[in-house]
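Practice problem 4.
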């Protein structure tokens, strides 16, 4: 790989040789067995949890897929990050490792959007593209099913606000998936796998530059960023929303331009002033677009779903981009557009609706059910920029 791999859990760069191993804790061929014990590194990183009782960590050549535990002589395939001690995906360092950071202010709907996005990628998008999306580890599969998908799709309940990462006990490990797609090359079709890491942060983690630097260092190593903005937090858009649309309270919530400014400043600072613009592709996603459908003309690209042709349609995406840019003028959001134009070399606007309709007064999914609209577009754009999915058209 052209660059040093980055841990999809703590977002630290790694030297492949320095990757460590964890004993599997099973009876070895010589009849020895290591006892499970606390891992202080995991405790320090993510708070003390029962799951941190595991086999001992030992040093070996992390470029190899297996190593022998010096305590019990057992062979282990459990490679772990030397920084955070989380077990790395099986193909880590052998396939593309793309880290997707998700940023958004409080009440912008990040957790709902992430849950629906991953659900769509596993089902509708997977069918259209002939792709698969699977959890890269047991923890991701268990957490996504029980804490995210079941709550929203089975129990039809909204999520409480994401806890701010002011303490290690509140820090949540990213959800890490493996995206697979068959691509045609010089020697015929072959599967191509990309590791995707999604990190959902609390809006409060972006309330000041200090908290951004402390709690979200992963942004500087992210390959792509999804910035979720709630148009209902723009003063010019609130009066245009459909009658009966629940409006978020504005007390304690910074305007979207403030969030964008802090994130931009941190990314520019990480480059040491060497770059005039940030090169990381930024998907600027406006949520809750169902509140504005009544204002859109019949021919608006935001009134139709993205083409499902097994490729990312660049022309359709650019049409949506220009339509959102036009709406920003009506929403008093021109400063957002100007800031992006002057700061990011690659950015694209998107308009989505995670649920298709506002939640009920008691924080439940509407009786019409979950009817997502264009939620996969931002991620498919990023994947097309990485070369992980095919695209049609240029731009």
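Answer key:
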């Amino acid at each position: 790989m052209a660059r040093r791999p980055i841990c999809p859990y703590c977002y630290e760069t790694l030297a492949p040789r320095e990757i460590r191993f964890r004993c599997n804790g099973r009876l070895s061929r010589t009849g020895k067995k290591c006892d499970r014990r606390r891992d202080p590194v995991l405790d320090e990183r993510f708070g003390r949890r029962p799951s941190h009782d595991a086999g001992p960590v030992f040093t070996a050549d992390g470029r190899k897929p297996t190593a022998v535990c010096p305590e019990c002589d057992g062979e282990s395939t459990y490679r772990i990050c030397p920084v955070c001690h989380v077990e790395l995906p099986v193909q880590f360092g052998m396939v593309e490792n793309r880290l997707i950071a998700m940023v958004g202010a409080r009440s912008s709907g990040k957790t709902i959007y992430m849950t629906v996005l991953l659900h769509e990628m596993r089902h509708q998008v997977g069918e259209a593209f002939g792709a698969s999306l699977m959890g890269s580890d047991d923890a991701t599969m268990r957490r996504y099913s029980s804490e995210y998908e079941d709550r929203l799709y089975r129990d039809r309940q909204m999520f409480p606000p994401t806890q701010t990462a002011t303490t290690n006990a509140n820090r949540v490990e990213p959800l890490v998936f493996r995206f697979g797609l068959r691509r045609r090359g010089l020697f015929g079709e072959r599967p191509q796998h990309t590791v995707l890491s999604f990190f959902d942060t609390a809006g409060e983690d972006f309330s000041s530059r200090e908290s951004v630097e402390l709690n979200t260092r992963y942004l500087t190593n992210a390959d792509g960023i999804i910035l979720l903005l709630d148009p209902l937090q723009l003063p010019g858009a609130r009066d245009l929303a459909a009658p009966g649309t629940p409006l978020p309270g504005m007390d304690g919530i910074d305007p979207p331009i403030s969030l964008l400014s802090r994130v931009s400043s941190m990314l520019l600072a990480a480059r040491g002033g060497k770059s005039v613009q940030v090169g990381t592709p930024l998907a600027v996603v406006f949520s809750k677009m169902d509140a504005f459908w009544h204002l859109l003309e019949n021919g608006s690209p935001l009134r139709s779903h993205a083409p499902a042709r097994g490729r990312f349609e660049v022309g359709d995406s650019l049409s949506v981009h220009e339509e959102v840019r036009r709406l920003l003028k009506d929403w008093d959001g021109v400063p957002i557009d100007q800031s992006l134009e002057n700061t990011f070399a690659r950015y694209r606007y998107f308009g989505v609706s995670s649920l298709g309709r506002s939640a009920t007064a008691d924080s439940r999914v509407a009786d019409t059910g979950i009817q997502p609209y264009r939620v996969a577009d931002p991620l498919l754009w990023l994947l097309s920029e990485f070369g992980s999915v095919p695209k049609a058209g240029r731009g």
